[in-house]
Amino acid sequence: MLASRFDTLSITTHAGTATRTGQPNKPSRLRKARLAVSLAVVASSVLSGCSRYQMTLNETVVYNPPSLLTDFDTVDPRLKSCLDQAIKDLNATDFGQVTQLICSHAGVSDLQGIEAFYNLKQVNLENNQIRSLRPLQYLSKLEVLKVNDNQLQQAPEILTLPTLQRVDLQNNPQLACGDIEQFAKSRDSQIERPEQCR
Questions:
Q1: Where are the beta strands (DSSP E) in the chain?
Q2: Is the dihedral of CA 156, 157, 161, 166 positive or negative?
Q3: 135 Cβ neighbours under 8 A, 6+ residues apart
Q4: What is the largest CA-CA distance in the chain?
Q5: Phi, psi of 183 (to 5 degrees)
Q6: Distance of CA 69 to CAs 27, 48, 92, 146, Å?
Q7: Can you tell me the distance from the alpha carbon of 78 to that of 152, in angstroms, rounded to the nearest whole number?
Q8: 130-172 pLDDT, tens per residue?
Q9: Would you put residue 162 in left (φ > 0), alpha (ψ -120 to 50) or beta?
């Protein structure tokens, strides 16, 4: 049925049907416009809350949410487990979405693979068995690094991280002090030193 310039109003009563014509349909258009706006607001609210769910219309998929990030490898399965948890917690679909990693007391010994998470700003790896920070040298946005209570022997990587503001190296009894001293002299940053470097 095509819309006309005039509405037709039909009223059914016990006595029969009365019809009135000739009234412009402005109120009807206004109601339709309000209804359309209301439906648009409701639809956008519903869809924004469902961005993690697949949506179908008449059994046809109209939206598939991006899948969680899985396209990375690590040497240490315990590091992979920590990264997987961070990804799950953030619903991360891209490496850049992961800005913080907490992987303390996890038994991690090798950091290879962490370098893919280029946007990390805070990393907590305390109380593990880490011997080398080499993969961290590629994390140019790293601001906070906690690697206390590990098995580090050297830490030249802290000198290559331009935004590093805080680093905790305490309780690494075999850690040489040269890199720590150079870091402390070259920056106005907070550094927690191992006992042999105080």
A1: 6-13, 16-24, 55-57, 60-63, 100-102, 122-124, 144-146, 166-168, 190-192
A2: negative
A3: 111, 112, 113, 114, 115
A4: 104
A5: -65, -45
A6: 52, 21, 6, 25
A7: 18
A8: 999 999 999 999 999 999 999 999 999 999 999 999 999 999 9
A9: alpha
Q: Looking at this protein, which amino acid is placed at residue 83?
A: L
Reduced to 3 states, what is the DSSP secondary structure of residue 179? helix
Find, among 63, 146, 49, 139, the residue nearest to 104 by Cα. 146
CA–CA dist 158, 166 (Å, integer): 10
Q: Which two tokens stand for residue 27?
A: 């109120």
Long-range contacts, stretch 17-21, CB < 8 angstroms, 24+ apart: none
| Stated pTM of the model | 0.70
Sign of CA dihedral 135, 137, 142, 147: positive
- Reading the block at residue 24, the tokens are 């412009």
Cross-strand bridge partners of residue 16: 13
Question: Which amino acid makes up residue 172?
Answer: N
